[in-house]
Amino acid sequence: MNRRPLIAGNWKMHLTVAEAVRLAQAAAAASGACPDRDVMVAPAFTALAKVCEAVGDTPLQVAAQNVAWDKEGAYTGEISALMLTDLGVRLAIVGHSERRQIFGEIDAMINRRLLGALAGGLQPVLCVGETLEERESNRTFSVLERQMRQGLQGVAKEEMFRLVLAYEPVWAIGTGKTATKEQAQEVHAFLRQFLADAYEKNIADAVRILYGGSVKPENIDSLMAQPDIDGALVGGAALNAESFDRIIRFQ
Ligand code: PGA
């Protein structure tokens, strides 16, 4: 199956505007040098405008780290898809485990955000993943199934082609503990089968599923060699221009 790889950097709550612009310029150069793959960065909201301006018409894609469900309204602290597309933002991460664990976002809320992204013209990057406790009590697949079923509630078939999925085991994020390539492949295959069963095979074949959780230059090549791993969502290692460059240039 011919899915275009996507290497995504999630900068979380890091970088001033000037630092973000510098890092985006480096990522844009690496992206330009690798025309067979997509590259995306997700700066903090405060840096989005300047980063979009700086990357201009380079192939680097800019994403938001979250998105509200309505176009506008009384939602203190929220940013809408309309505000984001206005800047040139093209994608939005939804359901990141830090939103779920630290800020109490539940599946129903993540689903609304995802629908808001789609309605507002953004490509959603839906993150799913189990905690260590869920994995150790053999609930990995039931948790993922719930996150998928509830997160994708009401998404029309034709919209599914715009979706990107990210499998991020919570126990692997920021811990230096990567899932083995076998563990990641097993879950990716499960998620693809879920898409085939819930939608149809051509959707399952088309949707890109990224792996996230302590991706670094040392493990990117073996992760990307797995048949169902179509890219990476990179946190810590995306904050360093050199290591993100090496990840973008995976072999
Ligand atoms: P990490 O973060 O690469 O620092 O583990 C990944 C993520 O949370 O997207």
The rough form would be described as: globular
How does the helix and strand content classify structurally?
alpha/beta
Terminal residue distance: 17 Å
Q: What is the N-to-C succession of helices and strands?
A: EHEHEHEHHEHHHEHHEHEH
The set of bound ligands, ions and cofactors reads: 2-phosphoglycolic acid
> Radius of gyration over alpha carbons?
17 Å
Structural notes for this entry:
- The chain is of the alpha/beta class and 251 residues long.
- The chain has helices spanning 17-33, 45-55, 81-87, 97-101, 107-119, 132-136, 140-151, 157-160, 181-198, 201-206, 220-224, 241-248; strands at 6-10, 38-42, 61-64, 91-94, 123-128, 164-167, 208-212, 231-234.
- The protein has an 8-stranded parallel barrel, surrounded by 6 helices.
- Helix 1 (17-33) packs across helix 2 and helix 7 packs across helix 9.
- The protein is globular and about 45 Å long.
- The protein starts with 5 loop residues before the first strand and ends with a helix.
- 2-phosphoglycolic acid is lined by residues 10, 168, 173-174, 212-215, 233-237.
